[in-house]
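Internal tracking record. Fields below are filled automatically when a chain is submitted to the structure queue. Please do not edit lines marked as system-generated. If the sequence contains nonstandard residues, flag them in the REMARKS field before resubmitting.
Queue: standard
Priority: normal
Entity type: single polypeptide chain
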Amino acid sequence: MPIVRSSLQNDQILHTRCENVLTDEDLITYYRDFFADGLQEKYFLELIDGSRITEFAITQFSQIKLKDIVEDFFGKLTQDIQYLSSEGADPTKIEENYSRILTNTFCNPQVANLLGLKKNQKISSPPKDRITVVNVLKFYLEALMSRKVAMFSDLEPVFEVFIQWEQARRHLGYPIAVFRDISSASVWLLC
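SYSTEM-GENERATED OUTPUT FOLLOWS
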């Protein structure tokens, strides 16, 4: 697999390491799985390592498709929040889409406060009232929008492609920055 996942800094950072030949299919599959596996719920910081890429076989198609995947995800979340904000909306209709968020293993302090639980108390079942579900999903959307992505490579052709991606992906709503080394990228992510 040309894209490998691991975690750094006590599971705070998703380290996405790209190796060898990187194709459109690799990139699209990786990020489609990223959202399908719920990794966006766990990792708000991502470090993309391009220092081992030997060849880019990526076209503009993958940038457009990746943009579509991200916009579809955020669009659906925003739509569901709007739906639930209306009187008479049934939270159980969208519960399946967000089961990992609404019943994650332990809740962080903000979600605990919204649910009336103690910090790190286990969430046993999704909240049933519409307003609480809306508040949890709004918190989640805000947390996603604070996501940061740092890309780095000391290889000039890879660095140049990363710069193009940085410029093309600015519309996503969260910061993306490109660096030549892992140290600078890591410092930026953690600050």
